[in-house]
Amino acid sequence: MSEAQYNKLISTINADTIYVGFSGGADSTALLAMLLASSEEQQFLVKAVHFQHNLRGNASKNDALWCSNFCRKRGLDYTEIDLDVKGEQQSGEG
Q1: Contact, 88 vs 55, CB < 8 A?
Q2: pLDDT tens per residue, range 3-21
Q3: What is the pLDDT of residues 69-81, one digit of tens each?
Q4: C-alpha angle 89/90/91, rounded to 5°?
Q5: Which residues, listed in sequence order, are joined to residue 50 by a DSSP beta bridge?
Q6: Spatial distance between the Cα atoms of 74 and 69, rounded to a whole number of angstroms
Q7: What does the chain look like in DSSP terms, one character per residue?
Q8: Is the pTM here over 0.70, yes or no?
């Protein structure tokens, strides 16, 4: 996406707050950073939401900690939602 396309797209946002699903991967980190960079000019708040699925043990915990630290260092609102995916799994679900 070109900068002009991005600016056109971002100018269509009509919201006070944008919640960004934040896994800590490259895509969600880039999206979060881009929205944060545009938030003041476009007058919206950016809030990061991390869903802790608890499926990969310490790797999942480390991802959540990285996301939390990333947001804290930038003064971003961060919410972590702890899920019990395995405990809620129904018979036959993958």
Answers
A1: no
A2: 788 778 878 888 899 999 9
A3: 999 999 999 999 9
A4: 125
A5: 80
A6: 9
A7: --HHHHHHHHTT---SEEEEE--SSHHHHHHHHHHHHHHHHHT-EEEEEEEE---STHHHHHHHHHHHHHHHHHT-EEEEEE--HHHHPPTT--
A8: yes
